[in-house]
Amino acid sequence: MTDGGTDKYMLGFRNIEDNTYNDIREKSLMQWLDDMSKHEDIAVRGGVKLAREYYSYLKAENESRLKSEYLKKVAAKK
Fold it and tell me: pTM higher than 0.70 for the full model?
């Protein structure tokens, strides 16, 4: 099953997510930001810091949302 770049496979009794695509995207973004941090234009270098902070914020928001969804499912099963 494919869900936004994440594949889930059944292996024995456990679901294992394949995040290879997302990991490659994240590494590519970070490499590009590293390259842009060496740019001669100060506005570009300043934008890199902002982009990194925003990416971190979005990642934390997503993890928080996933955690609360999981906790709701667990609470509903009880």
Answer: no
